[in-house]
């Protein structure tokens, strides 16, 4: 991370990094780094297998009568027909291409709209055992992650990245926006790993690669090199999104330069844009979202980059806006293709920490109230996992559905309509936000791509049933089958 930014948070990066000594070997293992007891893996190894399928029988569907079940035919990766269930169809001779759903819920598959592929599971990897959380605040997370990045190796990145991708697929995720950092420390290591994983898992999950400037590109000694590396990275085949973090810059003027630069290269190379923005709860600071909107309009995004989407992440400062200010923001955005992504596991851990004299008496959520943005202010919104197992977010997992369950409490959203919105946010709305169409609704219909997930597959064996989508959100079932096109995807876990 930038020395200037860390210094403003009480950390001298020069002193911190002087304790990390690197051997001349290609593994870049530091003298004080504990040995990893995880054996190297074959980079081509995958725990994914697939079974061809053309029919799914006896399933419940969202937005349809709850007491009826349906038979689905699939042809060439598309839902060819949806018919009322015929009980006799389950009594015919079994076929490996026919799946009996046994009254399970068939829903659109899940999506990670925002997840960091390169810095996942750092806290559970013995290689980084010495980089444990002591304070748990934002500045420490920046420092620990910076030290970890200096140790990244291709094998390490592929191993942890594979864990994330496979656990996500097992949860029902068939597409994700994956952030990979590019800067003077890691150069293209994270990007190379991300592109390899994108290719390796393409039949099970679409991995949309976002090259990400986590470090400053206009502040500090490495700024110019960081910009140059990012501009090289964005030209690589397989890169879909330009991402940046304006708030790590040294001052407001350079934050604005960061925003202008990110918009320009996204438009120049025809990429989606993703900004980590306004990650603070300081009422004295003007939200940078207004500058972003003006910069997009000034460059005529709607005419010159109409097909590309804009994602704004975190935006905790906006939780302090009044209702009138939200309506004003909505009018300013107008028809710009902007979606807000809340990242509640990270936001709740990082934001709203009370000062020591108040001894915990004041704590605010500090995460965007996504259902309200959607239902009240008619804005586009979603929420995502963000980080898994690192100093920014030590808790949680790769399952968006378990996150939706948590968000019932975070958003105080327990109604039937709330359940629909929460599921949309980890499925159809998330896909739309990253550029996968413009559909928010959950209805499964003929002509749709067969990217689906079957939930509660073992209820017929005596397990507790989930009769409604509301119950699915209240208590996410673990038993799932993932359908990607014309195949059931199997993940060999463990």
Task: Please outline what is shown here.
The chain has 494 residues and is an alpha/beta fold. Helix content is 31%, strand content 19%.
Task: Write up this protein.
The protein has 494 residues and is an alpha/beta fold. Helix content is 31%, strand content 19%. The protein is built from 16 helices and 17 strands. It has helices spanning 3-8, 13-18, 138-149, 154-171, 189-200, 223-233, 252-268, 289-298, 301-304, 323-333, 344-350, 370-375, 400-410, 416-425, 428-433, 469-474; strands spanning 48-52, 55-59, 70-75, 78-84, 98-100, 105-108, 110-116, 173-181, 206-213, 239-244, 272-277, 310-314, 338-342, 380-383, 451-455, 480-484, 487-491. Strands 7-8-9-10-11-12-13-14 form an 8-stranded parallel beta sheet. The protein has a 5-stranded antiparallel beta sheet with strand order 1-17-16-15-6. Helix 7 (252-268) links the parallel strand 10 (239-244) and strand 11 (272-277). Helix 4 crosses helix 5 (189-200) and helix 7 crosses helix 8 (289-298). The protein is globular, with a radius of gyration of 23 Å.
**Beta fraction:** 15-25%
Helix content: 25-40%
Distance between the termini: 34 Å
Cα radius of gyration in angstroms: 23 Å
Secondary-structure class: alpha/beta
- Runs with pLDDT <50, length 5+? 1-6, 13-39
Strand order of the largest sheet: 7-8-9-10-11-12-13-14
The residue-averaged pLDDT reads: 88
Give the biggest sheet. Answer: 8 strands, parallel
Please work out how many helical segments DSSP would assign: 16
